[in-house]
Amino acid sequence: MTTTSHRPVRIVATDGPGQPDRTPALDDLYRGFEAESLIPLWTEIGDLMPPQPRSRALPHAWRWRDLLPLARRAGDLVPVGRGGERRAIALANPGLGGAPYATPTLWAAIQYLGPREDAPVHRHTQNAFRFVVEGEGVWTVVDGDPVAMRRGDFLLTPGWRFHGHHNRSDAPMAWLDGLDIPFVHLTESAFFEFGPDAVADRGTPARSRSERLWAHPGIAPVSLAGRPTSSSPIAAYRWEFTDRALRDQLELADDGHPGVLGPGHAAVRFTNPTTGGDVMPTIRAEVHRLRPGTRTRTRREVGSSVYQVFSGAGSVRVGDREWTVERGDLFVVPSWQPLTVASETGVDLFRFSDTPIFESLHQHRQHVGDDPEGAGR
Questions:
Q1: What is the pLDDT of residues 267-283, one digit of tens each?
Q2: Are residues 256 and 352 in the same domain?
Q3: Cys staple from 337: which of 78, 231, 255, 319, with CB 3.0 to 4.6 Å?
Q4: How far apart are CA 39 and CA 33, in angstroms?
């Protein structure tokens, strides 16, 4: 039997505008509130309704050169199998009290699979993706469809799809996992289920079934056209197409085309071909490319983001923190923290965010420019 401990309600009386004078009668009233597990709004309004978002998450960066050796050591010491399920190492934001979360809504982890290893099949409510910064040889199998994982590929595992991974090569492989675990945990809506104990399909097709059906620009199978799906039916967005789209955008930017962000800055968003919207209901994913010497305008946005450097190098300023970053490095942008990126050698950045959640709730807001506060925009 599990016993749940309850923290007693405590009301902290404050002084200031709109606050009542501290008297024995008021203290007695507050004791009555505490006895009935009640808290008056007037003592809490500053924390509950701040003038602009105040994220508990902190701007923070993780270095790929530090993460990868630790993942390799875990590969030597930690088995993959039922119970542990995955050799995944989560980025823990130092502002979130030890929780294994990159931001209050987003999970980011380095997953590592050794030569000829298999990760067991399971499914869960949480939406997930994989992004490959280096290596190949692993297939992720989603509802029985083996999908090759190669450098630069963005791969989807929407919620409640059975999935496992198998490494058919003689070399280990590491990649970035992104999920909405913190959001699902906060909303107390999680389900998890083991799949068959048998290893996932060990096929190694060059293209998955989902790609053969859906990964053709502007073309949908007639039998499935017009049926919106909550998540994209495309299991893998291949780097060759992402790279080509970024190169074409930069060329158009040179000609002053209005459909691009500006000279030297191209960006693409992965979309659901059945709706034109985001690939999953809780996660947005993009790739940004900056030419050498390019600097972005400062941007603030409600909601949080995690970035990984795919190639190149540059400098990043988030709030009052600044870092130089290179291939594989990751950094977090908490809600409403200003972000500026400057490219040195040219840089490609993979980004995922929780923006679809706030857009669906009509709570999204952004500000682009040098206003030090950006509040009220």
A1: 999 999 999 999 999 99
A2: yes
A3: 319
A4: 6
Domain count, the chain: 2
- In this structure, the answer to whether residues 354 and 267 fall within a common structural domain is yes
Residue 33, phi then psi, degrees to nearest 5: -60, -45
Beta-sheet strands, E only, within the chain? 60-62, 88-90, 107-113, 118-124, 128-131, 136-142, 145-150, 154-157, 163-167, 173-179, 192-194, 236-237, 265-269, 284-290, 299-301, 305-318, 321-326, 330-333, 339-353, 366-368
Q: Does any domain span residue 13?
A: no
Closest of 154, 289, 131 to residue 211, by C-alpha: 154
Mark whether 109 and 178 lie in a shared domain. Answer: yes
Judged by average pLDDT, the poorest of 71-75, 118-122, 325-329, 371-375 is 371-375
- Could you give the CA distance from residue 323 to residue 328 in angstroms, rounded to a whole number? 14
Residue 41 three-state SS:
helix
Both 68 and 208 in a single domain?
yes
Q: What is the pLDDT of residue 375?
A: 47
| Residue with token string 């130089």 | 324
For 178-211, how does the pLDDT look when each residue is reduced to its tens digit (9 = 90+)? 999 999 999 999 999 999 987 667 889 999 999 9
Whether 130 and 207 map to the same domain: the answer is yes
Residue 197 lies in a domain: yes
Q: Which residues pair with 223 in a beta bridge?
A: none
Structure confidence at residue 47 as a pLDDT band (50, 70, 90):
confident
| CATH number of residue 98's parent domain | 2.60.120.10
Token pair recorded at residue 117:
């290893």
Burial category of 106 from C-beta neighbours within 10 Å (exposed 0-12, middle 13-18, buried 19 and up): buried
| Residue 132 φ/ψ region, left for φ over 0, alpha for ψ in the -120 to 50 degree band, beta for the rest | beta
Q: 278 by DSSP, 3-state: which?
A: strand
The model scores a pTM over 0.70: yes
Find the domain containing 67 and state its range: 60-214
Instruction: Let me know: does 121 contact 200? Beta carbons within 8 Å.
Output: yes
Q: Summarize pLDDT for 74-101 with one digit per residue, the tens.
A: 999 999 999 899 999 999 999 999 999 9
